[in-house]
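Need a sequence for this fold. Nothing fancy.
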């Protein structure tokens, strides 16, 4: 699954497209220069059970490591992924 990323400096999204439509997304807001807040994760019914949500969170973790950021997961799904995945803890705020 090809996860894409857009960021405008105030907010951003990691997402998956199929046939020109967004089928999964995880949105975040910038909070200062070194922190992002994950506020929403959504996956279409067609992609349920394929672990796309976790892949979106993982893409945010990779982004945070590259940019030396911290992540505050306010989205319940993202928070659960951080709680279940010890290797994500290094970027947790």
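Here you go.
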């Amino acid at each position: 699954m090809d996860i894409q990323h857009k960021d405008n400096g105030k907010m951003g999204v990691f997402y998956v497209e199929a046939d020109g439509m967004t089928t999964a997304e995880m949105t975040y807001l910038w909070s200062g220069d070194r922190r992002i807040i994950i506020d929403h994760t959504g996956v279409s019914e067609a992609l349920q059970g394929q672990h796309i949500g976790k892949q979106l969170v993982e893409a945010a973790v990779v982004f945070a490591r590259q940019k030396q950021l911290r992540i505050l997961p306010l989205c319940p799904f993202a928070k659960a992924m951080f709680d279940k995945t010890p290797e994500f803890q290094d970027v947790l705020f």
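For context: Helices lie at 52-67, 76-84.
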